[in-house]
Amino acid sequence: MTAVEEPVIVQTPTTPPHLSRLENGNIQLIVKGKPFLMLSGELHNSSLSSAKFMSEVWPAMKAQSINTLLGSVTWETIEPKEGQFDFSELDLVLAGAREHDMHLVLLWFGTWKNGISTYAPGWVKRDVKRFPRVQVLEAGGVKRTVEMVTPLSKECCEADSKAFAALMRHLAEVDSEHNTVLMVQVENETGLLGDSRDRSQRANKAFNEPVPADLLEHLQKTDVHPRFKERFPEIPTSGSHSWDSVFGAGVAANEAFMAYHISSYVGRVAEAGKKEYEIPLYTNTWLNFDDPSQLDLRGVPIVVGGGAEAGVYPSGGPCPHVLDIWRHNTPALDFLAPDLYFHDYETVCRNYTEQKNPLFIPEQRRDENGSRRVWLSYATYGALGASPFGIDTGAETVGREFKLLEQTKEFLLAAAPEDRMGFFFDEEPCDRVPERWTRVFGDVEVIIERAFVFGKAGPGGGMVIHLGNSKFLLVGRGFNASFKSVRKEATFTGILWADEKEVDAQGQLKTLRIFNGDETRSGEFVIMPNDDPDYGGFPIAVTVPARTCIVEVEAYWIAEEEDDR
């Protein structure tokens, strides 16, 4: 078996979790000196508020190879009275996590959660003079106050920043030696619902002021995101310009305005926390869609997909076309992350790995559709983690995939981006998902297709990792792997050797059996079958169900001379 080489990381006993960009192109989370792959899931909103509730959750999650849980810490619970902080329940939760060898990503539900301010303390909600609200326009031009503190509220930003700094300071005091908490999310799915921008008096005054010169300068100097460039191809270089003149009158300018002020607010909160405890910080995104054909709804109401216009989805959140505005205002955030439910999975992965942004998916589907797709995010796009939402009431489906990732994570972490590929096949073929995935590794092209059966082909997913010298690790179910040399002189490519692997008590991959004959169609391709392949009435038992779902295979090619034929 090819040895896995771990990167050499200089680590002191008190070094907190941090991100590392390796020379081979990988971006990894480093925990206690070693790369750490988050096999993660997000809890329901209120689960982490109770250590007693979580006492039954920890072991259930461990049984599905989940090693990291995302859960909320809310402003209203840690600062019920202004200036008085209570972390007693959080400390009990941290103790429970450590007892079960579980890591956490904390979600700071501060001023905003899903575009509204429901998790702000009562003393914030009641005091609209200190903490003024957003106003939106309804039909007929009537203004309505909504439960969202305006991002132009300096006092609320200062209060939120103090609370977040207190949380991070407390984590530094009680968790820096343990590294239980790996990262913290700052706010949640920010943006305004119900209108494209705040219509309050103070917001109108700010909107009528010129676009800040430092933002224009940043957009000129930055190699902006392709989605930004599509929407805003011409950005003025200097001078005084209105939001309408720079970004286009109407909704486009309104969204850019909201993105600027919300990101400035989040940036200040994040900076306050980072000064107290320097672990990775990020914020997440309620995605928009430009075209309904982007969505994989399959019978689900289109409104859940996000919305095509700012205000239907939260206006001003870190969607791809305004990421550059967000990056300008949030240097304390280590990355921006997509919540990914119904959009084209690979398109979103591409959008959020542009500009060397680390990929982390804080929320995604937990059903079979979503579980199959984690292979693409982890293996092709190097995700730090992919986190099905509501994991505490349904972890078994993704657990099947995570158990395989747990066994093979060292190989995945060691592989350079060009040496790994993830893929999946849904229940039925469709135009959105390839039926043939290919990548060239060295001299050999690896071709992934649905697993061969005599009856109806089933779904599948997995990854291929190049171990060097035409050796590959295949992990997953429901696919075939064949090989083709890309050398012009090659006249034949085949399978030299294939082993089914299992993990021993020490966590090492060992050969369980030799694959040949039916399992490789006599050297034509390796079959990674499903648990119950369809025989379609074929009378001979030549299709073997899945066992370990891990195979090491070596491909080879030859070049025959003309005289040898």
Mind explaining what this structure looks like?
- The protein is of the alpha/beta class and 565 residues long.
- It folds into two domains: 397 residues, TIM Barrel, CATH 3.20.20; 142 residues, putative beta-Galactosidase from caulobacter crescentus (Chondroitinase Ac, Chain A, domain 3).
- Helices cover 27% and strands 25% of the residues.
- The chain contains 15 helices and 23 strands.
- The strands form five sheets. Strands 4-5-6-9-10-11-12-13 form an eight-stranded parallel sheet.
- Strand 17 and strand 18 form a beta hairpin.
- Helix 14 runs parallel beside helix 15.
- It is globular, with a radius of gyration of 26 Å.
- The two termini are 36 Å apart.
- The N terminus is likely disordered.
Keyphrases for this structure?
565 residues, Chondroitinase Ac, Chain A, domain 3, 2 domains, 15 helices
Strand order of the largest sheet: 4-5-6-9-10-11-12-13
Number of helices: 15
- Find the count of extended strands (DSSP E, 2+ residues): 23
Specify the helix fraction band.
25-40%
Tell me the span between the first and last alpha carbons: 36 Å
For this structure, the CATH topology of the largest domain is TIM Barrel
